[in-house]
Amino acid sequence: MTIAPLPRSTFGRRRPGGPTDESGPVRWLRRTSLTFIALFGLAPAYWLVTTAIKPDGDVFEFPPRLIPSSLTLSHLSTVLGNHDVLRYLVNSLLVSSVTALGSVAIGSYCAYSFSKFRYRGRRTIMLTFLVSQLFPHVLLLTTMYALFSALGLLNTYLVLIIAFTTFTLPLCVWMLKGVFDGIPDEIIEAAKIDGAGQGVIIHRILLPLVRPGLVAAGMFAFIRGWNDFVFALTLSGDSTRTLPPGLVNTYLSESSNRWPELMAASLVCSLPVVLIFLLLQRHFVAGLSSGAVKA
Amino acid sequence: MSDRVQLTIPGGRSAVSRPSVPRRARRQVFPVLLVLPAVTLLTAVLIYPLIGAVIDAFFDHNLLVSGRTFTGLDNLASAAKDLWPLLRTTLLFAVPATLLPFLIGLVAALGLNQRMRGRGILRSVLLVPWILPGVVVSFLWLWIFDANYGVLNGVLRSIGLIDSNVGWLDSGTGALLAVVVARCWSTFPWMMVMLLAGLQALPAGAIEAAHVDGANALQRFRFITWPSLRPVAGVVVLLEFMWNFQHFDTIYVLTGGGPARATTTFSLAVYETAFKGFDLGKASAIGLLWLAFLLPIVLIYLRITENKS
């Protein structure tokens, strides 16, 4: 039996997109608007990358030079040579990785329960998971801050991991529930007849089957942890600060113009998530459209 | 709820097979044990703080002083004084930051739904702005809007739209425009993908048939594409509005709420009152008023997802 853990997304699918013999004005309209949208979507990203790798002379020229006169890696090496930025980078990697592992571990048990069992209160819990995503996180910060401060957890890695894991959990659970739903009950029944206990069924049979889904959910959690700003800003301290609040700390307060360095730092902060995204975009889009659950 | 959520975006994913027979676990304890870690975390980190914030609104609670005293409606009264400016700014940000990306996303989805060269690449690359960390998005637009060397001024001047550099972030209107544009840039890809998923659920034959029957492009959109797209459109607009209503990152980094509080939305006000003013009671009171406006939207969203099942 073959099992497709995640349905093919809108990306992977090749299908005809309606009539190709559209009339001239319509085609012209389509081309023009797409060109403008592509320009709007891509030009800022181009500006980010080129500012990071062109010499200072180009950057502080007005009107701006759209095509760099030469390329340099000096800004990137300045950023990566900055001990603070390096520490933020390591912190981000550490916290986001553990968040991804934790979300997938806790989320897969929860998703398995939601998917394959029926019990009183199940729908209520699932609804609470959904609704919890809709309330402003900034509002939760005040009590969270007081709570974690009372527990003596502020400025630790643990507090960031706990916070990030909690915020990514609902999404991970929704994604993974869809994956478990795709696994026929017969597999579980057969295993039971063979005398397998629940532990064996989950760890030996189901988790290997849903591994692509686990990876996708983990990457989702990683990116959310990596991109988070407001919780890291309030709950972390000097030694545990992650990249987003770290970069704001390092660069934003400075009055001197360090644009190329700031763009280089932005590039460093973006590259990991963009790479992960490009590797797993099909899963991303599937997960995106599956639950109307995002940030 | 699960099936409802999935149904909110028709065609977003192929129908997954549901357990054939709802099976009642022999021992109910086991499935509950499985959800326990997740539920514990959510209760401690999401639900408890939410309730705590609501209660805090009725206390004088300073971050620098331990303990709190009950003050009744004092916090709410003092928060209510700022209510209208805050609500106005929040709407001035959230409404355009929802509708503009929706329109761009819709046009992009319609454009990309057509078979053409480079479609796949364009789709993937256009999603990159959405994946970038919010802080990076803000840094980038801070640089683009820069008054002295910013590329926006440069481009506008070279095509003759403005004569001299504009300090975009120095005026209230300009700053509001800046945060909306930055937010627009980072969210239209999501709209595009969701609407594209909706478009792909549309039976291809319907458009062909209308085409054969002589319907022009506008009629085909009006009578065939749009009606089947409307449910998705409703949900994405509602969700995006909800997220914009509570958005923080871009505004905080790009304008810090300024100049002269012109971009101070509810989320910025709560953050500043709590972590710069250390007044948790008043911050919670602002949050409570904020929730009063958010709650109806949440309920509408739940109603819509409920009706889908």
UniProtKB/TrEMBL annotation, chain A:
Question: Per the annotation, which location comes first and is thus the protein's main one?
Answer: membrane
Q: Does the keyword Transmembrane helix apply?
A: yes
Which keywords does the record carry? Answer: Cell membrane, Membrane, Sugar transport, Transmembrane, Transmembrane helix, Transport
One Pfam match, given by its short name, reads: BPD_transp_1
Superkingdom of origin organism = Bacteria
Where would I find the ABC transmembrane type-1 domain in this sequence?
89-280
Q: Does the keyword Repeat apply?
A: no
Region: Disordered, residue numbers: 1-24
Q: Where are the transmembrane segments?
A: 34-53, 88-112, 124-148, 154-176, 205-226, 262-280
Where in the cell?
Cell membrane
Q: Which CDD domains match?
A: TM_PBP2
> Topology versus the membrane, per the UniProt entry?
Multi-pass membrane protein
UniProt xrefs under SUPFAM superfamilies? MetI-like
Please report which protein family the annotation says this sequence is part of: Belongs to the binding-protein-dependent transport system permease family.
**Protein's UniProt name:** Multiple sugar transport system permease protein
Taxonomic classification, please?
Bacteria, Bacillati, Actinomycetota, Actinomycetes, Propionibacteriales
UniProtKB/TrEMBL annotation, chain B:
> Any keyword Transmembrane?
yes
Organism lineage = Bacteria, Bacillati, Actinomycetota, Actinomycetes, Propionibacteriales
Q: Membrane-crossing residues?
A: 29-51, 91-112, 124-145, 165-185, 283-304
Domain of life, per lineage:
Bacteria
Topology relative to the membrane: Multi-pass membrane protein
What keywords tag this UniProt record? Cell membrane, Membrane, Sugar transport, Transmembrane, Transmembrane helix, Transport
Q: Where in the cell is it found?
A: Cell membrane
- Name it: Multiple sugar transport system permease protein
Query: Does the record bear Transmembrane in its keywords?
Result: yes
Q: Name one Pfam family in it.
A: BPD_transp_1
- PANTHER family reported for this sequence: BLL4140 PROTEIN, DIACETYLCHITOBIOSE UPTAKE SYSTEM PERMEASE PROTEIN DASB
Q: Which family does it belong to?
A: Belongs to the binding-protein-dependent transport system permease family.
InterPro entries (alphabetical): MetI-like (IPR000515), MetI-like_sf (IPR035906), UgpAE/MalFG_permease (IPR050809)
Q: Tell me which residues make up the ABC transmembrane type-1 domain.
A: 87-301
